[in-house]
Specification:
Mean pLDDT: 82
Number of strands: 0
Order of helices and strands: HHH
Helix content: over 70%
């Protein structure tokens, strides 16, 4: 069985629309926070894997990681 991307997006849109109708604002916000945090953790770990593969020495990796974390903190603060 082959699932096309557009079919999935239509189904997912209606699913989210149904969730927004059935549940209150607090439940919606909680679901959104959980999804953002879980995807964010996976995305962040992937970024560190890419940084580790690109850097040849441990010092270069630490510099890149420090820059990456400071950029993320700057985005969160502002």
């Amino acid at each position: 069985m082959r699932v096309h991307y557009q079919d999935f997006m239509i189904f997912f849109t209606f699913l989210l629309f149904w969730i927004s109708i059935q549940f209150g604002q607090i439940i919606e916000d909680s679901i959104a926070y959980i999804i953002v945090l879980s995807i964010g953790i996976v995305h962040g770990s992937n970024d560190f894997t890419i940084l580790k593969k690109q850097q040849n020495s441990k010092i270069d990796f630490l510099k890149s990681t420090g820059f990456y974390l400071s950029l993320i903190i700057l985005c969160v603060v502002t």
